[in-house]
Amino acid sequence: MMDWSWTELQALGVKAASGAQVPPAQALAFGAMLARHLADEGDEAPVLRALEAPDTIVALAHAVERLVEAASISPAGTASTREGDAGRRALLVSWLNGLPCRSEVSVAGDTVRAMLSLVEPSTRARPVRIAVSQRLADALHDLAARTYVPDSAASRAGGAGAGLMELD
Amino acid sequence: MKDIVPEPVELRNPQEVMRLARMGVMMPTRISFLRSLVRRLCAEKARITRTHWQMCEAGFGRAVYSVTLGGHVYSLVAISNDLPGEARSDRVIATAWDAAFVLFDGVPGADDIDRIAAQAPLQEAGRFGPRDLVLSRANKSVRMWDNIVAALRAGTQPDRAMIRDIGYLMRTTAVYGNGKFGIADRHLVQDRPGLSGPFAVEMLAVYMIRHFTLDLVQHVGGGALDRALARHLGIGNATGLGMAPFLVTHPVLLNNWMLARETALGRARAVPDLAPEAQAHVAGLARRAAAHLAEWHVPGPEDDSLLRTLEADWARFAPRFDDLSGTDPLDRLWQAAQGETPALQELLAALLIEAVPEAVDGLTECMADPFGPLVAPFEDTDDLRTAIARDWAWALEQDHADPALCRRFWYVSMAKLEPRLGDRFQEPGAELETPLDIARRVAALHCDLPDAPGRVSDFLALHPEHAHAVNRVAVLRRYPYAEIRDSLIAATCRPIDMLRCKLSFFGATKFDPKSDLWTRITLAQGAPLGDELSPENEDWWLPVLG
Question: What is the mean pLDDT of residues B245-269?
Answer without folding.
Answer: 97
